[in-house]
Write a structure and sequence with these properties.
Number of domains: 3
Distance between the termini: 51 Å
Structural class: mainly alpha
Helix content: 55-70%
CATH topology of the largest domain: Clc chloride channel
Strand content: 5-15%
Largest sheet: 3 strands, mixed
CATH architecture of the largest domain: Orthogonal Bundle
Shape: elongated
CATH class of the largest domain: Mainly Alpha
CATH superfamily of the largest domain: Clc chloride channel
């Protein structure tokens, strides 16, 4: 205490002294403590998430010592469909932002919402992904746990009311913590957070992400034990000339990764065009398709951990990994993952990318070893192939290199990996490929390559154009009274609320005209009897492209804006005229008014 007293006396004699110095120091310590809390929380969430998936898998699929899914029984075809439906229902009714791969949604929250996320995403994303993956859906765990971790960090930051800049960092720290806990790769998790999520480097952000990643990794070790994510033998280069073979492997990986991205994006567009099919039903249909594929190729189902372990250590698997079989696995996994995620199933692309890369590398290794018997085992090429496809699909070369090093714990694999990843990334750039995350975000108005898209429909949010003073009508009002309101108003459609003020429908001139043609008594008929109950709604943070899409889906030119936490609470109204006003030079964003 005496030492601190002397220091304070010395500081007080300086003209530049301010108690803000002490506050800044306190704030920095607080942020580091929050990073520790975020790491601990994300590590626990990763532990629970893993056990959720295992629980669903063992409950639905285990049959004695041999899993029913892997046995390819016809009775298990419908399991992925059930898992997709349950996950889709959870997402649709409780947290629609939990839909998707996970990583693009986390980046979108950082770029568009200042890192703000709802706490309920932690639960919804965990359970929905457990249903999808645990029942046999072809997806990985890394996307969900990254979004779960980001939601944990964001929730803790909002609880302590940190500034927007720190909120973003805490969300990224949570994402890194979740990834570190699941994959036992804390260094790769830190690099992923800086390279993909934040896309910037500051000492303070780096420190907070490191703290979270380390604490999450330690928490995972305590809860799950000291288990490596994917046990692999040691691999390396047997002869310097092998770099030529890795160069050829890199040339193959680039177009294969591009094909995977295009198939997945096409599948998303394919399912999106069916507007009349309810959103929760689409992942059920996708799950059914994957289940049917699994009857013939059961190894493409699930996350693919067992298959990866087997192809890296072929002696563990009595099945023959022939060239033809490996080709089927590459194509099958690509299609199954695209269907699972494109239909709306909840899961990530990291594990499928590693799976496809491993099978491609193993296939290449078999052919190369037939020509050059003294080269490294096929497992070495499988490992490098994993890093190549992941680096291309996620556009994260540094993360891929470090992750494969942490998985193998062997420095010898780093040299061929660095060389081939560089070649693949150059090839992808030449082919115009930007990575899956960038493509998904570009559709939503976020351009990771060069700033945001300036088209208002891609950047302006619903809360910036909505009319806040909404004219409403009550369900127990007569139709005749409604016609009088329309005569006095410049609007031809109104949201309908009940006695509690909750949004229950919408009524327009079309419904009134139909009632008139049906010969109903306008003086006695209540609005509640003629209104449309399928109310198109939007949330405040939805960009206009999503708002317009909902309008087209419901064949209407107006949409109600409701609170994200309470879909019955009406807070605004948007018409096509409001959307068009966003294109006017005089339009100003809400935050600048």
């Amino acid at each position: 205490m005496r030492l601190w007293t002397k220091r304070l006396l010395l500081l007080s004699r300086k003209k530049s002294f301010s108690f803000l110095n002490l506050i800044t120091l306190s704030e920095e310590r607080t942020l580091m403590m929050l990073a520790v809390v975020v790491g601990l929380s994300s590590g626990i969430c990763a532990f629970l998430f893993k056990h959720m998936i295992d629980g669903v898998y063992h409950f639905c699929c285990e049959d004695g010592t041999k899993t029913a899914i892997m046995a390819g029984q016809w009775t298990r075809v419908f399991l992925p469909a059930i898992g997709g439906l349950l996950g889709g229902l959870l997402i649709y009714y409780f947290a629609r932002e939990a839909k998707g791969h996970g990583v693009p949604e986390a980046i979108y929250a950082l770029r568009r919402r200042g890192g703000r996320g709802r706490p309920r995403v932690v639960f919804v994303k965990s359970v929905a992904s457990a249903f999808t993956i645990g029942t046999g859906g072809s997806a990985g765990t890394e996307g969900p746990i990254i979004q779960i971790g980001a939601a944990v960090g964001s929730s803790i930051g909002q609880l302590f009311k940190v500034t927007p800049a720190y909120l973003k960092t805490l969300a990224a720290a949570g994402a890194a913590g979740g990834m570190a806990a699941v994959f036992n790769a804390p260094i790769a998790a830190v690099i992923f957070a800086m390279e993909v999520l934040l896309r910037e480097f500051t000492t303070q952000a780096f420190s907070m992400v490191v703290f979270s990643s380390v604490i999450a990794s330690v928490t995972s070790h305590i809860l799950l034990g000291d288990n490596t994510f994917l046990p692999t033998p040691s691999f390396g280069i047997e002869h310097p000339a092998e770099l030529g073979l890795y160069f050829l492997l890199a040339l193959i990986a680039a177009p294969l990764s591009t094909l995977f991205i295009k198939v997945l994006m096409w599948m998303e567009e394919f399912f999106d065009q069916f507007k009349k099919i309810a959103d929760p039903v689409k992942p059920m249909i996708g799950g059914l398709c994957v289940g049917l594929m699994g009857i013939f190729v059961p190894k493409i189902m699930g996350a693919g951990y067992f298959e990866l372990s087997a192809v890296l250590s072929p002696e563990k698997d009595p099945a023959a990994w022939s060239i033809g079989f490996l080709l089927v696995l590459v194509a099958g996994k690509m299609i199954a993952t695209s269907i699972t995620l494109g239909s709306g199933g909840s899961g990530g692309i990291l594990m499928p990318s590693l799976f496809i890369g491993a099978m491609m590398g193993s296939l290449f290794g078999i052919v190369a070893k037939g020509v050059f018997p003294n080269i490294a085992p096929t497992g070495a090429y499988a490992l490098v192939g994993m890093g190549l496809v992941f680096s291309s699909v996620a556009s994260a070369p540094f993360t891929a290199i470090v992750m494969m090093f942490e998985i193998t714990q062997d420095y010898r694999i780093v040299l061929p990996l660095m060389f081939s990843v560089t070649v693949t990334m150059i090839m992808c750039r030449q082919m115009g490929e930007m990575g899956l995350y960038a493509r998904v975000l570009l559709k939503r108005g976020v351009n990771l390559a060069g700033g945001d898209v300036h088209d208002p429909v891609m950047t302006v949010t619903a809360k910036e154009v909505m009319v806040k003073n909404v004219e409403i009508v009550w369900e127990n009002m007569t139709v005749e009274k409604l016609t009088q309101i329309i005569d006095q108003s410049h609007h031809t459609g109104f949201p309908v609320v009940n006695g509690q003020g909750e949004l229950i429908g919408i009524v327009t001139y079309v419904e009134i005209h139909k009632a008139y043609l049906d010969g109903v008594d306008l003086k006695e008929t209540l609005i509640g009897h003629i209104m449309r109950q399928d109310v198109p709604v939007s949330f405040p943070d939805d960009v206009l492209v999503d708002v317009v899409r909902r309008m087209e889906e419901f064949h209407t030119d107006r949409i109600s804006v409701v609170e994200a936490d309470n879909p019955k609470r009406l807070i605004g109204f948007i018409t096509r005229a409001n959307v068009m006003a966003a294109y006017q030079p005089s339009f100003k964003r809400a935050e600048s008014r």
